[in-house]
Design a protein that fits this description.
With 113 residues, the chain is mostly helical. 41% of the residues lie in helices and 0% in strands. The chain contains 4 helices and no strands. The chain is extended and about 65 Å long.
């Protein structure tokens, strides 16, 4: 298990919320936990999908499953369940560059201001 991967305790809660991938195009599904860890790795470190670590599987397979789950509303259901269980709040936290001030010289200002 890599740093930041889902623990056994976390997986016991989240694992049952994720849809089964069996039967898609007659190919067996791979481990949802490994795919979830790959998704969380990309979101945590901010790397492109193509640069995802190989231990999580093929980047395109992880990306396709991430998109499919987003379109099916899986992420909304997971968040709602975690909120209902009291394991997280329903706030969304974000930092946007429009609220972060840079030094005037960082923008190329010249001379004394």
């Amino acid at each position: 298990m890599g740093r930041g991967d889902v623990s056994d305790e976390e997986w016991s809660i989240i694992g049952m919320l994720l849809p089964s991938e069996r039967g898609r195009k007659a190919r067996p599904s791979h481990d949802n936990r490994r795919f979830l860890n790959g998704m969380l790795h990309v979101l945590r470190v901010g790397c492109p999908w193509r640069d995802m670590h190989e231990r999580y599987g093929k980047w395109n397979s992880v990306y396709v499953r991430f998109r499919r789950w987003a379109e099916q509303g899986v992420w909304d259901e997971v968040l709602a369940t975690l909120v209902d269980l009291g394991l997280t709040d329903d706030w969304q936290h974000m930092i946007d560059s429009t609220i972060v001030r840079g030094h005037s010289q960082a923008a190329g200002a010249k001379g004394d201001l």
